[in-house]
Amino acid sequence: MSTRTPTVDRARVLAYRIARQGLHRSATQVDDLDVVALGVQDTPPGSARLALGVRTEAEVDDHTLVRAWTVRASPFLHRAGDLPKLAAALWPHSERDALGKVAWQRSVMRKSGITATEAIRYTAEAMRECVTTPTVKGVVSTAVSKLVPKALVSYCRGCQAEHVFESLFRLAALPGGLRLDLTRSPPLLVPIENWPGIPAAQSGADDLVKRYLTFVGPASTADVAAWLTTTQTEVKAIWPTAGLVEVDVDGRAAWIPESEVDLLLDPPEPPRVLLLPTSDPFMQERNKTFLVPDKAHHKAMWPVIGQPGAVLVDGDVTGLWRAKATGRKKLEIRITGFAPVEPGARAALDDQARLIGALRGIAETNVIVS
């Protein structure tokens, strides 16, 4: 292979990601979708089902995937066999890394005399002790709060009770060997069979980075750090030592696995229109300006509450969409474009809207473009 640094533009990168993430709908089974190796976020609940449905014509509920709090302590769908390695890869690489993961509770950690890494381990140990059968989350939280150090517990106005910090609770669940079951209400925490135990230290993080670079690459260390809610220093410490190629993306240095370069340089033409749900793998890119170059649209695309879906036309993010159902009979999909929708794209837009409706079990869809 040539040692010359490949040069690609934004359009080619987006076309590559669309192809690599299975958005040409070539997979015949949900379990066969390559992007599942990265994980499919399920925020809000049900969005992962739509993300799977826009990638395959197979029955979206016919799969063996399981749900767990993983990247950024958010709920993702994964292959069950990937969870032990994922728990080890997400375990803090250092105390600085752990502080980044507990986010706003850093000051509490510093005052408590307990390191953030210890706090995650104490909570994981308590969860492992408390949960031996599928158990409602609130019951688990009450039990865990009695076992962890008092400094890790605070009064919650919403619950009108004292319990362990939510971010710690979520961060500790997977290393404690627990996954989520949202088919019951309220949701359950379920012990994972044959769990190897709480990780002694981080391992396999370089493979996790490679998976991100495969599906959301080419990307920089800053991009990966934002995805993992850590620092570039921490990412550089776990950066893969082999198998990556530097790529020039519109003048910016980024990296991608060597095995993906051919597809990056010559990706297939993107589908005419795509309606991607909230938190879709395509939107896992943390550099908002790369996805939507005009910052004037960022507030609408990424509001604090109630993030919409993304509209892609010819591989580019050209707007957002929201859906409103009237019972089980009609679904209204309102498109807010960053630019006028081309007349030639309208038929494909209607087809995508019908697909979203079918995935939600609604036969009649009405598209409103504004």
Detailed description of the structure:
The protein has a five-stranded mixed beta sheet with strand order 12-13-14-15-16, with helices on one face. It has helices spanning 10-20, 47-53, 83-90, 95-102, 106-112, 116-130, 137-145, 166-173, 205-216, 221-228, 232-238, 261-265, 288-291, 298-301, 346-359, and strands spanning 7-8, 40-41, 66-69, 75-78, 135-136, 153-156, 161-164, 178-181, 188-191, 244-249, 252-257, 273-276, 309-313, 316-326, 330-337, 364-369. The protein has a domain at 273-369. It is α+β, with helices and mostly antiparallel strands and 370 residues long. Helix 6 (116-130) crosses helix 7.
Quick structural summary:
The chain contains 15 helices and 16 strands.
Radius of gyration: 21 Å
End-to-end distance: 48 Å
Please, what is the average pLDDT? 93
The shape, in one word, is globular
Key descriptive features of the protein:
single chain; about 375 residues; alpha+beta; 5-stranded mixed β-sheet; 3-stranded mixed β-sheet; globular
Draw up the topology in text.
Layout: E1 7-8, H1 10-20, E2 40-41, H2 47-53, E3 66-69, E4 75-78, H3 83-90, H4 95-102, H5 106-112, H6 116-130, E5 135-136, H7 137-145, E6 153-156, E7 161-164, H8 166-173, E8 178-181, E9 188-191, H9 205-216, H10 221-228, H11 232-238, E10 244-249, E11 252-257, H12 261-265, E12 273-276, H13 288-291, H14 298-301, E13 309-313, E14 316-326, E15 330-337, H15 346-359, E16 364-369
Parallel strand pairs: 1-10, 15-16
Antiparallel strand pairs: 2-4, 3-4, 5-9, 6-7, 8-9, 10-11, 12-13, 13-14, 14-15
